[in-house]
Design a protein that fits this description.
Low-confidence stretches: none
Mean pLDDT: 89
Number of strands: 10
Helix content: 25-40%
Distance between the termini: 10 Å
Order of helices and strands: EHEHEHEHEHEEEEEH
Radius of gyration: 15 Å
Structural class: alpha/beta
Strand content: 15-25%
Shape: globular
Number of helices: 6
Length: 201
């Protein structure tokens, strides 16, 4: 498993929820060092992205939507293009950030679970070890229309055209999205494995 990860904890994310997703990320992976990325401010964001050997950033669900400057967008594209991985979690706001930053055209679409693994797409990724179906969790799901995922993207889990886990190759790196907001202390099922797989992309 990866040794280090950034977690975005800017004012825009919800303090409590944050701790929960960090705990989940550390489940069975006690050596994982979590570093907090506190702002999209140009200089802080850039210093963080290029300071250390950290190849993954996790963006938990937001309560307040951050403004992302043109420079921060460019830096985030540069970070991913260089072979790093970003994981966006459970919020339609993140879909619009992904559209804005990476030029995607993701569209939201909701269907009730369970959600089924796409065996052809998961091959050769950390998702190939996950269970073949994900139950409808006890929190909110912010899924995406499968046909709105870019050509370089692959849907890992979906039901009837609504995708709940996908990744998109972006130059040498990857952009991952998990539709579940993890906003519940119970009823998570195997969604913790999905978080781990996404962080390992």
């Amino acid at each position: 498993f990866i040794r280090n990860a950034w977690f975005y904890t800017g004012r825009s994310s919800d303090g409590q929820e944050e701790g929960f997703i960090e705990k989940l990320a550390r489940k069975h992976h006690y050596k994982l060092q979590i570093h907090h990325l506190e702002s999209f401010k140009d200089n802080e964001f850039r210093a963080a992205l290029f300071s250390e050997n950290i190849h993954c950033i996790v963006f938990p669900p937001l309560i307040h939507f951050p403004g992302v400057s043109e420079l921060a967008k460019k830096d985030l594209r540069g970070y991913v293009s260089a072979g790093n991985n970003v994981v966006f979690i459970g919020s339609y706001e993140w879909l619009s950030v992904m559209n804005d930053v990476f030029g995607f055209q993701l569209m939201s679409d909701y269907k009730d679970g369970p959600y089924y693994r796409n065996d052809r797409n998961v091959r050769g990724t950390p998702f190939q070890w996950s269970l073949s179906r994900l139950e409808q969790p006890d929190g909110s799901i912010y899924s995406v229309k499968v046909n709105s995922i870019p050509m370089d993207g692959k849907c890992m889990f979906d039901t009837m055209g609504a995708c709940v886990v996908f990744y998109v190759k972006y130059n040498l790196g990857t952009v991952c999205y998990i539709a579940f907001d993890y906003d519940t202390p119970y009823g998570i099922g195997h969604w913790d494995q999905i978080l781990h797989a996404a962080m390992m992309m």
